[in-house]
Amino acid sequence: MFGCTTTLSGVRIYDNHAYLFAGGIYINGYMGSVNVTFDPVNRCSIYNNTAGAGQDIVANSINNDLHIPLDMFTVANPTSYYVAAHRAIDNEFQITVDALNFHHQEINYDLYVSPDGDDANDGLTPATALKTIRTAVYRVASDSLNQKSVHILPGTYSSTANQQVFPIPLKSWVKVQGAGIDATQIVGEMDPIYGNIPDASLMVFSSFYQENAGLEELSITTAGSDNSCAIWGYKEKALHLENLRMHELSPDLNAIIHITYASNCLWDGLIIEDFTTDQRGFLRIDGYFTGVIRNSVFRDATSTFTSDDVWAKPLIWISAGDEITVENCIFDNIEMMNDNSQALSFGGVLNPTYQQYYHFHNCLFSKIHCNERGVLIVGHAYPEMHISNCTFAGHTGNGEALMINGDVTISNSIFYNQRSKEIAINPMDGTGLPTTLTLNNNLIRNGYSDIWQGINSTVNYSDTNITGNPLFLGGDDVHDPLYYSLSAASPCINAGTPDTADLNLPPYDLAGNWRIWDGRIDMGCYEYGSEPWVSVDDPTIPPTPSISMKAYPNPFKVFTNIKVNMEKAQSASITIYNIKGQRVKTIALDPHKGGEQHTYWDGRDADNRQCSSGLYLINLQVNGRNVGSKKVTLVR
């Protein structure tokens, strides 16, 4: 309904499906004033409709409060999952539903979905699992006091294989949880009904005005579409994404994760990789983004867009709100074919009314190929930026590796690239916004001469900075993230700032080892000679002098050797746990052998399935008692 005056009386709208907005009724005030009334005597019914956003009702850009009396609605207490007021900017008008009857009651229990399930089941156990993920999310209750989970059992989920319907809308206080990125595969496919719509974008998951929705432990790809998006959202609060792999999608109109307005988010353990695009890329967060992105990998992507007049869209393009933290992340093998476009952009909201804070810690920015700057971190109203223990290496192109502005401190970082400059100060389009750049304990290829100083800026260049070659470990496989760790001859070892108290660093480096080792922090995102970090919360017991265990190499890609030394023969076993404390595999040792024993773990679980990248705990038990633990890092 667009820009009209009308009264609805006695209408029944039910069991409909819309690809994106409102399977029931969509009221759009964007094209003019809307004066819609619902007959309170001969009431309408709107129920059991589905859509990517706002299952039953969406009111877009309404210019007045909207009250809807109904005979029947879907549920008794509709949230924004069912009824969404898609407001205009600075518009706080509300939409309320007053219904006499309700189609169904949501289920306040965890639900299960299986490739072999049936939507006629109750979904309460794996044995009575539902078939479609959308149905499970639709039925489960949104409980802010006790978040529920929709468990996606191992297997492949697609329209072709088991009648999945896309997009799958997320719901507030509901976690959609797979069995692991190698076990649960989501293959998005466009419904043929909507596939012929011009510029239709295939969205696998959507989230519209939701709070504390979650998605984790699965992989997402698409088939049969050259315009696809893994997660699309609008006005999200505390969206939690964890341990997700998104690969071989086709971002075009939307980025792989494309959200407008996202606050207080935690995104942990994302892997986004393997795509070519001439439009969007890994991430597009417009409006604003606040929150944390950590332990994530963004790699192997190319933007093919070229133009003499128009710049290409960055492959990561985030409009930062008041605070953003990016830590322990890898940005690797990223190419922009356009001559005047940066690859990665973290840009502040224009004319903010608040102070902006940016934090980048333990990140690797490697093999970024473009003829403009590789990474742009920009803010307005004199933002405060802290960049520590990051490595910018292997870039090629005429531009600089990093451009910044504001009150910027860079510490313990490495800049070693084939670029015209390593660091540039953003002149803010000639407005002369001042910048103060402070550099402490960094390796910068050619030192101060590799810094381009902008208008009215100040550079505090400490004599603790060094120049030259960081002497990375290197190797034959430049796709190995450890390629940019430090060799034994590196001048960056123990060359970081003596005081790290104010750096807000995580306790582990990019490889999962202790961030500070040998009494002094190194430059860059890896700590030389360090061992796997073990949290004080981990169930570790120091080994007794007569029993010891070692695991090497660590981190490992194919297998790690495990050496156990026991004074005498006794019953012993090795058990591997993932970071959540779930048992992955048990390896028995020879109970008749004392002294030194050798075994190995090949990164597979008890069912011979490959485990995903991450930290794992190797636990040694002797005579039923835990006597030692080691943390290892599996890198796929």
What does the model show?
2% of the residues lie in helices and 43% in strands. It is an all-beta fold. It is globular and about 85 Å long. A hairpin with a 2-residue loop joins strand 44 and strand 45.
Salient structural properties:
Pectate Lyase C-like, 636 residues, 3 helices, four-stranded parallel beta sheet, mainly beta, 2% helix, Immunoglobulin-like, globular
State the distance separating the first and last CA atoms: 51 Å
Uncertain stretches? 538-545
Could you say how many structural domains there are in total? 3
Q: Kindly name the structural category.
A: mainly beta
Number of separate strands: 45
Helix count, DSSP H or I runs of 4 or more residues: 3
| Fraction in beta strands | 35-45%
Return Rg in Å: 27 Å
Q: Biggest sheet, open or closed, and with what strands and sense?
A: 29 strands, parallel
CATH classification class of the largest domain: Mainly Beta
- By CATH, the topology of the largest domain is Pectate Lyase C-like
Multimerization state: single chain
Q: What's the helical proportion of residues?
A: under 10%
Mean residue pLDDT: 88
Shape: globular
What is the CATH-assigned architecture of the largest domain?
3 Solenoid
What would a concise description of this structure say?
The chain has 636 residues and is mostly beta strands. The protein has 3 helices and 45 strands.
SSE blueprint and pairings:
Elements: E1 5-8, E2 12-14, E3 25-28, E4 35-38, E5 44-47, E6 57-60, E7 66-73, E8 83-86, E9 95-102, E10 111-113, H1 133-139, E11 148-152, E12 155-158, H2 159-162, E13 168-169, E14 174-177, E15 184-188, H3 192-195, E16 202-208, E17 214-222, E18 228-237, E19 240-247, E20 257-277, E21 283-294, E22 297-303, E23 316-327, E24 330-336, E25 344-348, E26 357-361, E27 364-369, E28 375-378, E29 384-388, E30 391-396, E31 400-404, E32 407-411, E33 414-418, E34 421-425, E35 436-440, E36 443-444, E37 451-452, E38 458-461, E39 547-552, E40 560-566, E41 572-578, E42 583-588, E43 595-601, E44 614-622, E45 625-634
Parallel strand pairs: 1-4, 2-5, 3-6, 5-7, 6-8, 7-9, 10-11, 11-14, 12-15, 13-16, 14-17, 15-17, 16-18, 17-19, 18-20, 19-20, 20-21, 20-22, 21-23, 22-24, 23-25, 23-26, 24-27, 25-28, 26-29, 27-30, 28-31, 29-32, 30-33, 31-34, 32-35, 33-36, 34-37, 35-38
Antiparallel strand pairs: 39-40, 40-43, 41-42, 41-44, 44-45
